[in-house]
Every structure is written in structure tokens, then in C-alpha cells.
Design a protein that fits this description.
By secondary structure, the protein is mostly beta strands. Among the domains are: 112 residues, SRS domain (Immunoglobulin-like), CATH 2.60.40; 105 residues, Immunoglobulin-like (Sandwich), CATH 2.60.40.1320. Helices cover 11% and strands 37% of the residues. It contains four helices and 22 strands. The chain has a five-stranded mixed sheet, with no helix packed on it.
């Protein structure tokens, strides 16, 4: 039997029975094209939780409707990682305005819970990035330029004013993230070298699956990588988790960059408009050494294609020698 004929039919059978597979190395076969993910021709992978939720604005913001006592916030709202916004509503009994007065001082906030007028400062004084608040139909929307890593967990405050009382709201930045997790404008640094040839990272946006080869500098710019050095396993994408592995270390240290894309992020200058923001996942693959070459030689796939495929018990990375099957 012609081995090229068998090869094409074997690939077709795998695609039908395991649509989640990703062919990750160039096939030793004329006319083969990689990478491909089942019938998905998009270069991006996106988990259901990673999508911008179009109906998000339909969710009613939490309402501040109790009188503050002892300078304790009635409620805390947290800036969202993907929209860079937090919202709250001043209840009917506290609809006489805000402290600071958002209509005239949108970039001001209170730096502590006591919130006297002398403690009103620009949001940038607290976060080191710009921010502003907008008031519409008793709903306050706070937008920040980004979430600085060194300011995560910081809080600032607003008061909803009643006739003779107030309702205090704390606005918090999200808590700290692991080093391997993406966020808007963040750079995640990963490295692969013997014996650690597998690494995980998280992207809660859309992952562009074709990496960029970084020739110089530390920015995620350059042309698409032409080699298939890294294998990408997206079997945990529902949890925003992706796994990179290398079967054989390169002859020279190589730096690749994956982009995690966030669509529909409100612009700070005009929150009625949106923009696309990114996180960079920089992966440095160390060059092979005599010791690592021995290890990779003993474990590297010997088949024409290295395929990530799903099994009943979980995800297994295996090498299937289609040419060997054809010979049988």
C-alpha cells in the first residue's frame, strides 16, 4: 500500500475521532500543512470564560443603600481584569451627589475611608496610572488605565450623599496574580531548558497560537516563527491554562512570544469606545548542551509527526509514527 495514501487517511481518521488534536511539528511529507486544530482555521484559541461577556452591562451593579458608620465601607467593588472597570449604584436615599463630586472632578477619589475634602486626590496619586469616575443615572463607573502589579489590592473610596448621611464605597484593585498568569499590558516571562522542558501559563483572553520570534529586545514584535520548536497543548483552555513543551532543545537560545488578546476594552479617554489590549508571554528556550542533547535524544519523538491528543484519562502527549503504521 502507498504510504502517502495511508498517511492522509490516518490523519483524517485522527481529526474525526479526536477533533481537539493539534499537529505541532512540520510533517515529513510533501503538501502537509501545520499547525491545524481540527477544522478550526483561526489562529486564536479562546475559552468560554475568556470571551468578553457581551451581556455584562445587563448585570445590575451593586447598590450602596446603607448609612456608613465608623468610616467602614458599606461595600467593596473590584476593578475587573478584562474591562478595567468597576461599577456601583447610589441608592435612592443617597442620590444627592458624591464625594468627591464626580461631575466636576472625575479623576478625584478619597485616599482613605474617612474621606474628608482635604483627602481628595487624583486616582493616579494612588495607583500610579490614570483613572476616572463617571456618574450616570446614579450609577458610578470607575475606569483605570491598567492594573499595575505593584499596586494590586490597593483601595480608594467614594461616598454617595444622602440628605444628612453618606454611604461609603471602596474600590479595590484585583489581588496579586501568579507570575505565569496574563493580564492586560502584563509580560509573562517563561523559560524552557533541560531538564524542565514543559511549562504552563494562563491567558483569560484569546490566545494567538502562532508565536512571534523575537530577534532583539524584550518586546513582543517581529515576524511569525517559522520553526515548530514548541508544542502547544490547549486541553485545559476552559480553565485558561495552556502548556508549552519542547521535544528537542535548539542549537541556539531562542526567544518566542505568544500574545494573549483582550477585545472590547473600554478606552479611558472615551469609555463609549473600545480597543484591543494584549499581554505578552515571552518564552526563552535555552540552547542544547551535550548533557541536554543526550536527554532529548533519548526522549525525542522519532515519528514524522508529533501529535498532542486526548485520551479518556486526561491529556497525553505521544509520538505516533504514521510511517511505521503505513509500513505494516
Amino acid at each position: 500500500m502507498d504510504r502517502h495514501y495511508f498517511f492522509r487517511w490516518a490523519l483524517l481518521a485522527l481529526a474525526v475521532t479526536a477533533p481537539g488534536i493539534i499537529v505541532t511539528e512540520a510533517l515529513g511529507h510533501a503538501g502537509a500543512t501545520v499547525p491545524m486544530k481540527g477544522s478550526d482555521k483561526s489562529p486564536r484559541l479562546q475559552s468560554s470564560q475568556g470571551r468578553q461577556v457581551l451581556g455584562k452591562d445587563l448585570v445590575k451593579p451593586e447598590e450602596c443603600n446603607k448609612t456608613t458608620t465608623e468610616d467602614k465601607p458599606v461595600m467593596t467593588v473590584t476593578i475587573d481584569e478584562k474591562s478595567l472597570q468597576a461599577k456601583f449604584t447610589c441608592g435612592n436615599a443617597f442620590a444627592s451627589g458624591t464625594v468627591p463630586e464626580i461631575g466636576t472632578s472625575p479623576r478625584k477619589c478619597c485616599k482613605d475611608a474617612a474621606c474628608p475634602s482635604e483627602n481628595e486626590v487624583d486616582i493616579s496619586n494612588i495607583l500610579d496610572v490614570d483613572g476616572k469616575a463617571e456618574l450616570s443615572n446614579h450609577t458610578v463607573t470607575v475606569t483605570v488605565a491598567k492594573v499595575p502589579d505593584n499596586k494590586r489590592g490597593e483601595k480608594f473610596y467614594y461616598k454617595c450623599k444622602g440628605s444628612d448621611n453618606t454611604c461609603l464605597v471602596a474600590v479595590a484593585l484585583p489581588s496579586s496574580l501568579p507570575d505565569n498568569e496574563c493580564a492586560i499590558d502584563r509580560t509573562v516571562e517563561l523559560s524552557l531548558s533541560a531538564p524542565q522542558t514543559t511549562v504552563e501559563f494562563k491567558c483569560n483572553g484569546e490566545l494567538v497560537t502562532t508565536p512571534i520570534e523575537v530577534k532583539t529586545g524584550a518586546s513582543c514584535t517581529g515576524g511569525q516563527a517559522t520553526n515548530k520548536l514548541l508544542q502547544l497543548d490547549d486541553s485545559k483552555a476552559q480553565n485558561h491554562t495552556y502548556t508549552l513543551s519542547v521535544a528537542k532543545l535548539p542549537n541556539a537560545t531562542t526567544k518566542l512570544c505568544y500574545k494573549c488578546v483582550y477585545e472590547g476594552v473600554p478606552q479611558l479617554s472615551d469609555t463609549t469606545k473600545t480597543e484591543t489590549r494584549t499581554c505578552s508571554v515571552m518564552v526563552t528556550v535555552a540552547k542544547a548542551t551535550p548533557e541536554s542533547s543526550e536527554t532529548s535524544t533519548s526522549t525525542a519523538p522519532t515519528s514524522a509527526a508529533s501529535i498532542a491528543y486526548k485520551s479518556l484519562g486526561g491529556v497525553t502527549l505521544g509520538a505516533i509514527s504514521l510511517s511505521a503504521l503505513a509500513a505494516n
